Amino acid sequence: MIRSLRWTSKSIRLSQLLLPGLLLAIVLMPVSAQAHFDGSHGIGFMHGFTHPIGGLDHLAAMVAVGLWATQMERRALWAVPLTFVSVMILGGFIGTTGIAVPFVEQGIASSVLMLGVLITAAIRLPMGQSAAIVASFALLHGFAHGAEMPASASGLPYGLGFVVATALLHLSGVGLGLFCQQLFQRHARLAQLFMGGFVTSLGVYLCVA
Q1: Phi-psi label, residue 55: left if phi above 0, alpha if psi -120 to 50, beta otherwise
Q2: Which of 41, 126, 133, 137 is the most exposed place for a label (fewest CB within 10 A)?
Q3: Residue 161: which of 145, 183, 173, 148 has the closest Cα?
């Protein structure tokens, strides 16, 4: 019981620090990138950074990964997002090779829908299974990032851009999930249903659009 209370207290402090800071970082990161990169490197980083944020499917999925992680054991707060980012890098590399992969867009839309269902139903799976699920999603998202890299962009800065953006979106999802758990407390399950339902609705829209 004492251990649980300590973890709740840590979660409250973490959510208070994460959410405002990370949302601000997402807004300011492009400005900072322009200050530190120039020429083709700056173009590459900015293209990569804005790709996940500029696409509703990518943005919703990456925030949803963070939200789902807050519903699982504490290791998931870093293990699930880290798995997504790691496998996404591999997918991004494959996407730059010109290999054709069918139904990528449909798979990305389905990932949003499935994450929404997982959040709504508060499904808690063993870490290995959770990691495998987000890894399959990450491979598709990463492939799309790599395949859509502009010819004028430099590969490494572009990849760094979408990795940074993805990590920030994951952390924003974690911060939002922990913040809602703190804010609603007894009604945290209702908040989960609302957020999960919203993500699910986006997934349905993306699948039929």
Answers
A1: beta
A2: 126
A3: 145
Which segments of 77-175 are extended strands (E)?
none
37 vs 43: CA distance, rounded Å: 8
> What is the rounded CA–CA span in Å between residue 71 and residue 56?
23
Please list, in sequence order, all residues whose beta carbon lies within 8 angstroms of the beta carbon of residue 167, skipping any fewer than 6 positions away.
Answer: 81, 85
Contacts of 28 (CB under 8 A, 6+ apart): none
What does pTM read for this prediction?
A: 0.80
In our burial notation (b when 16+ CB lie closer than 10 A, e otherwise), range 165-181 reads: bbbbbbbbbbbbbbbbb
Q: Give me the chain's average pLDDT, please.
A: 82
Tokens 């609603």 locate to 184
The DSSP symbol for 71 reads: T
Which of 39-43, 69-73, 84-88 reaches the highest mean pLDDT?
Answer: 84-88
Which amino acid belongs to residue 171? L
CA-to-CA distance for 207 and 201, rounded, in angstroms? 10
* Helix, strand and coil percent figures for the chain, each rounded to 5: 85, 0, 15
Closest of 16, 104, 13 to residue 61, by C-alpha: 104
